[in-house]
Amino acid sequence: MRRAIVAAAVLVVALTGCATAAEPEPLTTGEVVDYGFEGVTLEGAAFDGAELEGSPAVLWFWAPWCPTCRAQSSNVSALAERHAGEVAVIGVGGLDDGPAITEYANEVPHVMHLLDPEGEVWRHFEVTRQSTYTVLSADGEVVFEGYLDDDALNELVAELAEG
């Protein structure tokens, strides 16, 4: 019985766990993003995806309970601060309820956060796991989609900022 419980727990973690360097997502490039999505910011304001048109952007799909996401948050915050006005950095919190997402998002400054407890923005971008980055060029082309370590993300965003 104990073995069955452990096997079930491992399966649940495998299906819902965080992406890591050992589990990279396949690279998806060249597609032009559909800006036809909406969200709600941490402050409760409506957000229209069209606001991202014409600017490079990083969408960071995270969950408040995800240890990988938590480890990435200080770099994402610093990246957003460093490239403010050059690259939009949008955190899309999901896979939990609104209060939990809000609580953790308040700990990650400089990032525009969207609350996505129902997963609408996640589904729009076909994101199935956290932590996932969707990196867009100013032309709306998907430059990268999946897991990136901090150094790779910083290098990619620096290239986009140089334009």
Summarize the structure.
The chain has about 160 residues and is an alpha/beta fold.
Detailed description of the structure:
The chain has 163 residues and is of the alpha/beta class. It contains 5 helices and 7 strands; from the N terminus they run αβββαβαβαββα. The protein has a 7-stranded mixed beta sheet with strand order 2-1-5-4-3-6-7. The longest helix has 16 residues. The protein is globular. It starts with a helix and ends with a helix. The N terminus is likely disordered.
Q: Rg to the nearest angstrom?
A: 16 Å
Helix content: 25-40%
The biggest beta sheet reads:
7 strands, mixed
Uncertain regions: pLDDT < 50 for 5+ in a row?
1-16, 19-27
Determine the number of helices (DSSP H or I, runs of at least 4 residues): 5
Number of strands: 7
Strand order of the largest sheet: 2-1-5-4-3-6-7
User: What share of residues are in beta strands?
Assistant: 15-25%
Distance between the first and last residues' Cα: 58 Å
**H-E string:** HEEEHEHEHEEH
Gross morphology? globular
The chain-level mean pLDDT equals 86
Counting helices, strands and paired strands, the structural category is alpha/beta
SSE layout and pairings?
Layout: H1 2-16, E1 38-41, E2 46-48, E3 57-62, H2 67-82, E4 88-93, H3 98-105, E5 112-115, H4 120-124, E6 132-136, E7 142-146, H5 150-162
What distinguishing features does this structure have?
163 residues, alpha/beta, seven-stranded mixed beta sheet, 7 strands, globular
